[in-house]
């Protein structure tokens, strides 16, 4: 006999069965991608990136010209001390903006008595040099007068010599004619005596004497002809200032004329040296007079709107001694700012004077763009010489490179940052 308890289902077992039915069946774990698949996708992405970079580079090189090196530059203005004295300068800081006409200091002249003494010494030396110059000029005038006198005597002597040689030639010509006439008569006489000897009228001795006389007469003709030729040669040599026999001897007028010419040349050289010295003395006196005119104070003002680039001298509270022309301060002129860019020679045909270009600032993590225009294109041999008044002198150009100067609008640059002078940039020119 079964009881009711046995027929009634067990609550605990029933709950356990329901719980097992309701519990979800465990799913299979997800399969992760293999390591080979990951590396495959990484290689694919890297290849696509490299191809994209190469494509961008090729597209850019085909459509534009990019500079190898470029930087911003500007002119430098140097202020110098106007005179010798004690410098008092404001406490200027590099990068400080200054406007035109601003007084930034002064030079106080504390050596007026000493400068006056220097001027008096220079004036005394100037008067001495002027006196020496006057004496030299008088001496030159005297020597020129003597040279004129001796030159006149030399001309007279040359005329006398020419007359003498002419007379000698005429005398030799007359003697030659006489000798020729005598020789002709002697020849006729000898010929006649020869005929008489054949006829037996005169003796052979008498005929031989006539023949000998004719030979002597002809010898005299030859000697007279030689004397005439010698006289003509001496005349030609004398006309050209030469002498045929012996060493050349000069007459007193000729010797004195030569000595006077040499002396005048030496005196004129001394005059030129004195004139140069007098000119230098006048310049020094004018400079000292200008310093005395400035007297105590000479203001130092800024010539144009600019930025302090560097301070060469510090005046301080007590001031600092400076000489005339000493550099005091260097200013950066932000009104004229340009880019010195260096590009390959094969890209020159893509560059045109006046063409617009894009300039990108690369430093400080920025890539701001500024518009500019090409002002000049220089080859390696025509580059700007190092030492010009610019903030950054140009470097030595490498082979097959040209320097391009690009003017920028100064409104885009900040003066407190030195107008970005010295910053590296990249210049892009469309082909």
Automatic annotation (TrEMBL):
Gene3D superfamilies: 2.40.30.170, Helix hairpin bin (1.10.287.470)
InterPro entries: UPF0194_transport
Keywords on record: Coiled coil
Coiled coil stretches, renumbered: 214-284
Residue ranges of the region described as Disordered: 1-31
Main location: other
Location in or out of the cell: Cell envelope
One term under GO cellular component: cell envelope
Keyword set includes Coiled coil: yes
Comp. bias intervals (Polar residues): 1-16
Protein name: HlyD family secretion protein
Species, as recorded: Acaryochloris marina (strain MBIC 11017)
Lineage: Bacteria, Bacillati, Cyanobacteriota, Cyanophyceae, Acaryochloridales
């Amino acid at each position: 006999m079964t009881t009711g308890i046995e027929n009634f289902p067990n609550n605990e077992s029933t709950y356990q069965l329901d719980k097992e039915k309701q519990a979800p069946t465990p799913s299979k774990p997800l399969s992760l991608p293999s390591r080979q698949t990951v590396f495959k996708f990484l290689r694919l992405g890297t290849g696509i990136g490299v191809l994209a970079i190469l494509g961008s580079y090729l597209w850019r090189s085909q459509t534009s010209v990019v500079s190898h090196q470029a930087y911003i530059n500007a002119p430098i203005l140097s202020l110098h001390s106007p005179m010798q004295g004690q410098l008092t300068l404001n406490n200027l800081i590099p990068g400080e903006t200054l406007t035109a006409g601003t007084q930034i200091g002064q030079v106080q002249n504390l050596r007026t008595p000493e400068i006056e003494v220097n001027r008096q010494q220079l004036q005394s030396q100037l008067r001495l040099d002027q006196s020496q110059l006057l004496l030299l000029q008088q001496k030159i005038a005297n020597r020129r007068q003597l040279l004129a006198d001796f030159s006149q005597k030399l001309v007279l002597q040359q005329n006398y010599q020419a007359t003498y040689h002419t007379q000698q030639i005429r005398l030799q010509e007359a003697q030659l004619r006489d000798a020729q006439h005598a020789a002709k008569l002697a020849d006729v006489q000898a010929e006649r005596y020869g005929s008489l000897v054949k006829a037996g009228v005169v003796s052979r001795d008498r005929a031989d004497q006539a023949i000998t006389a004719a030979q002597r007469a002809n010898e005299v003709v030859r000697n007279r002809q030689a004397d005439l030729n010698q006289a003509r040669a001496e005349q030609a040599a004398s006309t050209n200032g030469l002498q045929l026999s012996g060493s050349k001897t000069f007459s007193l007028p000729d010797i004195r004329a030569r000595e006077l010419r040499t002396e005048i040349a030496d005196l004129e050289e001394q005059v030129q040296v004195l004139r140069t010295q007098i000119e230098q003395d006048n310049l020094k006196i004018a400079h000292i007079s200008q310093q005395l005119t400035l007297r105590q104070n000479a203001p130092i003002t800024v010539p144009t709107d600019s930025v302090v680039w560097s301070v060469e001298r510090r005046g301080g509270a007590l001031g600092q001694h400076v000489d005339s022309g000493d550099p005091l301060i260097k200013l950066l002129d932000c009104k004229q700012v340009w880019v010195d860019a260096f590009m390959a020679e094969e890209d020159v045909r893509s560059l045109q004077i006046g063409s617009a270009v894009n300039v990108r600032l690369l430093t400080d993590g920025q890539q701001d763009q500024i518009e500019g225009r090409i002002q000049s294109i220089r080859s390696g041999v025509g580059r700007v010489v190092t030492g010009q008044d610019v903030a950054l002198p140009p470097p030595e150009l490498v082979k097959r490179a040209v320097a391009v100067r690009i003017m920028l609008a100064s409104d885009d640059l900040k003066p407190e940052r030195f107008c970005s002078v010295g910053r590296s940039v990249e210049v892009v020119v469309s082909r």
